[in-house]
Amino acid sequence: MAICNDRVAMKAGTNAGIIANLLMGLMEEGDAVEKFGKTWCRCSFKSITVIYPFLSMAQVEYAIGLLRDKEIIIRRKLSFGGFDHTNWYAFTEYGRKIIKWGDEHKGYC
Question: Are 79 and 86 spatial neighbours (Cβ–Cβ below 8 Å)?
């Protein structure tokens, strides 16, 4: 079962709302690290398609791109291994506000 964050979905689409909810869940479950003043979780496109088999790799890539373009999440490569190219994601301050309250609070319009 997929749970979609409707406030993110209104900004970036349903698939982005589903993925944003997944990333937030990973961070809240403790599968995350604190670096650069943010909470980061790692998640590959492939692992998202395993969790949500109704999403294709292209849909995941597009949804993550929308989340980045709308400045809801940021991406970095934090892995130290030369062969590990898994992306790490963190929510921006704006993204955290949208996840919790939507755009109507704190002057985000």
Answer: yes
